[in-house]
C-alpha cells in the first residue's frame, strides 16, 4: 500500500512537471510564433483594417522639430575667429495625414500623397515663431557665389549690400527663416534676372497643404517586412543625387515600420526633404 501510494504520488509529480514543461514550451516557443504569424498576417495595408487606419492617419501625433544656431559673435567671425553659437529650439510643428489613397496590383501596392500641413505647437516650443535668430545670410551667400565671376552683377551685389547695410549674417524670425521672407537683395537682382525668386525660406514652398509628390508603398501583403515600405517616389526611383547609392530609396517614410522587429533589425527611413 505504501509503495503504491508512493508510485501514484511520483506519477502525480511527474505529470505535474510534464504539464508545467508543456505549458512553458508552448509559452516560450509555440505561442509567440503563433502570435507573430497572426500579426504578420494582420499588419497589411488593406482597406478597413486597423493597420491601414493607423497608417493613413496615425493615432500618435507626428511632430517636426526645428533647432537653430544663434550666432553670438558676428564681428569676430568677420575678423577670422571661430563662430560661437547657441542652440535654440525646439520649434515644433505637427503635420500630415495620407491622402488620395489608391490600391494597386491586387493590393500588393498602394499609392498615396502626403499632404503636409504644418501647425505650430507653441506649448511644445521654446518660444513663439517670432523669436529672432542670427544666422548666415543664405540668399546673399548664394548670389555672391553664383555671380562671383560676373563683373557687373558682382559689383551691383556688393554696392547693394553696402548701401543697405546687409552683411554675411542676418537676423530673422524663426517663422521667416522656415516659411520664407522677401529678401531685398534677391528682389533687387530680380530686376536684371527675372528668373530669380525673391522669397527665401528653408521650407519655402514646402508650406501648407502642399505635398511632395506621389508615393508608391508596398502593402506588406506578400512579405510582412515590406509593410509600408516605399517602392517609388514621384513615379520613379530617385535621380536627384549623383551616385546610385545616394539615389536608393530604402525603408518607410518613418511613420510606420514592419511588425516583429528585433533589436538587431536595421530600419531605414526615406525623407524627401533631403532632395531639395
Ligand atoms: C475603402 O472602402 C470604402 C467602402 O467600404 C470605400 O468607400 C473607400 O473608397 C475604400 N478606400 C480605398 C482607399 O480604396
Ligand atoms: C491579380 O489577381 C488575378 C487573379 O488572382 C490575376 O489574374 C492577375 O494577374 C493579378 N494582377 C496583378 C496585377 O497582379
Ligand atoms: C498651415 O495652415 C493651417 C490651417 O490652414 C494653419 O493653422 C497653420 O498656421 C499654417 N501653418 C503655416 C506654417 O503657415
Ligand atoms: C498643446 O496644445 C494642444 C492644443 O493647442 C494640445 O492638443 C496638446 O495636447 C498640447 N500638448 C502638450 C504637450 O501640452
Ligand atoms: C539670437 O541672437 C539675437 C542677436 O543677438 C538676439 O536678438 C535674439 O534674441 C537671440 N534669439 C534667441 C531666441 O535667444
Ligand atoms: C536599398 O534600395 C536599393 C534599391 O533602391 C536596393 O538595391 C538595396 O539593396 C537596398 N538596400 C537595403 C539595405 O535594403
UniProtKB/TrEMBL annotation:
Signal peptide: none annotated. The keyword Nucleus does not apply. GO terms for cellular component: lysosome; membrane. Keywords: Glycoprotein, Membrane, Transmembrane, Transmembrane helix. One of its GO terms (biological process) is receptor-mediated endocytosis. It comes from Neolamprologus brichardi. It is found in: Membrane. It comes from the Eukaryota. This is Scavenger receptor class B, member 2c. One of its GO terms (molecular function) is scavenger receptor activity. It holds the Pfam family CD36. Belongs to the CD36 family. The chain crosses the membrane at residues 7-31.
Amino acid at each position: 500500500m505504501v509503495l503504491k501510494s508512493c508510485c501514484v504520488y511520483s506519477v502525480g509529480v511527474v505529470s505535474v512537471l510534464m504539464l508545467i514543461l508543456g505549458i512553458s514550451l508552448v509559452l516560450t516557443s509555440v505561442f509567440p510564433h503563433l502570435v507573430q504569424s497572426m500579426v504578420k498576417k494582420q499588419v497589411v495595408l488593406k482597406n478597413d483594417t486597423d493597420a491601414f487606419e493607423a497608417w493613413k492617419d496615425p493615432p500618435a501625433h507626428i511632430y517636426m522639430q526645428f533647432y537653430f544656431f544663434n550666432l553670438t559673435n558676428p564681428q569676430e567671425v568677420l575678423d577670422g575667429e571661430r563662430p560661437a553659437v547657441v542652440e535654440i529650439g525646439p520649434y515644433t510643428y505637427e503635420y500630415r495625414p495620407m491622402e488620395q489613397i489608391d490600391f494597386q496590383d491586387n493590393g500588393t501596392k498602394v499609392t498615396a500623397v502626403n499632404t503636409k500641413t504644418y501647425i505650430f505647437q507653441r506649448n511644445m516650443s521654446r518660444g513663439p515663431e517670432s523669436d529672432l535668430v542670427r544666422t548666415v545670410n543664405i540668399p546673399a551667400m548664394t548670389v555672391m557665389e553664383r555671380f562671383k565671376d560676373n563683373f557687373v552683377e558682382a559689383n551691383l551685389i556688393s554696392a547693394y549690400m553696402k548701401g543697405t547695410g546687409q552683411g554675411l549674417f542676418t537676423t530673422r524670425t524663426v517663422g521667416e527663416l522656415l516659411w520664407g521672407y522677401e529678401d531685398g537683395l534677391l528682389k533687387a537682382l530680380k530686376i536684371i534676372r527675372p528668373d530669380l525668386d525673391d522669397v527665401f525660406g528653408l521650407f519655402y514652398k514646402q508650406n501648407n497643404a502642399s505635398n511632395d509628390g506621389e508615393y508608391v508603398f508596398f502593402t506588406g501583403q506578400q512579405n510582412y517586412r515590406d509593410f509600408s515600405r516605399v517602392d517609388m517616389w514621384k513615379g520613379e526611383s530617385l535621380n536627384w543625387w549623383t551616385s546610385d547609392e545616394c539615389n536608393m530609396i530604402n525603408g518607410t517614410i518613418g511613420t510606420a515600420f514592419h511588425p516583429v522587429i528585433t533589436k538587431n533589425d536595421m530600419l531605414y527611413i526615406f525623407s524627401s526633404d533631403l532632395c531639395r
